[in-house]
Task: structure prediction
Amino acid sequence: MTHTWKRGDLVELDGRLAVVVGVEGDPDVPEDHIAVWFGDPRCEPSSVGGTRPEVWTVPAEYFIPAGAPIWKH
Result:
């Protein structure tokens, strides 16, 4: 089944959760790929150097939709 991913979709790749931050046609996203952010486990505040987000472009066909999120407040 082929999905048309959109920015903001939660996706899964081999058990790793990610959020779609770019789609085919966006700058630096190759054809048939999506750009995803897997998160940053270090969560360092900018006051101590922080980190730049790492975004991966991966063939879109490798992903499946993530399960429904658990909403917390």
About this structure: The chain has a mean pLDDT of 90.
